Amino acid sequence: MTPRDRVLVALAHQLPDVVPAYVRNVIGWERHAAYLGAVTLTELMQRLGNTILSFSPTYLASDPPASAAEHSPGLPPIWGFAGDMEPYTYTDTLPRPLAHAQTAADVEAFAWPSGSAQAWDFARLRAQLATETRHARLSPSWTPFFSQLCGLFGMEQAMINLHWNRAVVEAALAHLDDFYTQFFQNLLGTCGDQLDIFGLGDDFAGSRGLLIRPEMWRQLLKPRYARWIGMAKARSLPTLLHSCGVVLEVLPDLIEIGLDAWQTVQTHLPGQDAAQIKRRFGKHLTFVGGIDTTNVLSFASPEEIRRHVERQILALGEAGGYICAPDHTIMEEVPPENVSALYRAVADFRRPGYTLAPSNDGVAGHDPGNRSSA
Fold first, then answer.
1. Contact yes or no for 73/54 (Cβ under 8 A)
2. 54, 209, 353, 365: which has the fewest Cβ within 10 Å?
């Protein structure tokens, strides 16, 4: 099987020859590339056995045009503030353009970006997608709606406004809705037949549960997700949502509106035990993630990581429906040998009921070893 085949088999809840692996976001990727004897990010991802590539169109409504990083899972920064994943800014201390908005008129005065074909180079994206035949092709999978609301106002002010100044929230959500609906219409209209997976990405939960009440989530967020997922389903595209935290309360809602795959699957969080979520949701969802970056990947030994990977595959991958990946961004403190151990363990795993091949004999996987010392 090709990497793309393995992903499509996982989405169909069938057995792959090798459990598919995903490399989504690596901070300080150059260290890991040097460790494995790679030069570019693309080469690093190949060495690790990555099966999915995320593609984003170039943003034309800027001078010079803003582009997403190579195979970035998200859109470029177009909202008037630096991205939270810029070095050392993963906080709420960044200036927020709507922090002082008091009325809907203040929201209307913001320079809202456009999702139009004049603002984005969808034709070039289509050409890029057409040249990729080996990996599964994913549309931007960080397209935040609720998180973008929090980014525009600042987390604290967004939460205050949700309860005490709903008019400014609803005005902002209407603009965000217009942007993404237009963007997805153009993306799917131009590139839908060249995509393998339609991606969404939004964080609306923390490590203990939803950041807003479930009824508010269903009122404000669910109808929008349903519309966008429905647009992809109309083109027979599998759908994937990136969403961190404890999202169990609304997983049935997401399944109801057509979600096929959930990433990041943080199984160390309360109520999200791997075996339990497999039993409850495994017939409906393909799980993407599951490897604990918080407690294991940064601190464990390579051998402990290998055992953790095997346990997670055994819990989440029975009868297929699993793409193995870190459950969050690989941060700078993660040692290169641990990243190598993670993806080597995925490549080495074989077991009846989980993979087609019961052993390594005759199966060509990948070898994320230290190429510089090979």
1. yes
2. 353
Q: What's the total number of domains in the chain?
A: 1
Once rounded to an integer, what is the mean pLDDT over residues 316-342?
A: 96
Domain-located, residue 188: no
Does residue 159 lie in a domain region? no
pLDDT: is 363 or 234 the higher one? 234
Q: What is the CA radius of gyration of the chain?
A: 20
pLDDT tens for each residue of 338-373: 999 999 999 999 999 999 966 544 344 555 655 433
* Residue type (1 letter), 52: I
- Angstrom distance (rounded) from CA 49 to CA 47: 5
Judge whether 260 and 8 are in contact, CB under 8 Å: no
CA dihedral 290, 293, 298, 300 (to 10 degrees): -30
How big is the chain, counted in residues?
374
Averaged pLDDT score across all residues of the chain? 92
Convert the pLDDT of each residue in 246-269 to its tens digit.
999 999 999 999 999 999 999 999
Let me know if residue 343 belongs to a domain. yes
Range of the domain at 125: 3-85+120-150+195-373
- Taking a C-beta distance cutoff of 8 angstroms, is the pair 356, 311 a contact? no
Q: Report the distance separating Cα 41 and Cα 43, nearest Å.
A: 5
Q: Are the CB atoms for 104 and 35 separated by under 8 Å?
A: no
Answer whether the bond into residue 64 is a cis peptide, omega within 30°. Answer: yes
Indicate which CATH number applies to the domain containing 10: 3.20.20.210
DSSP state letter for 74? B
Is residue 96 left, alpha or beta, with left meaning phi > 0 and alpha meaning psi from -120 to 50? beta
Q: Is residue 25 part of a domain?
A: yes
Strand arrangement of the beta sheet that strand 239-242 belongs to:
198-201, 239-242, 261-263, 286-291, 322-326
pTM exceeds 0.70 for this model: yes
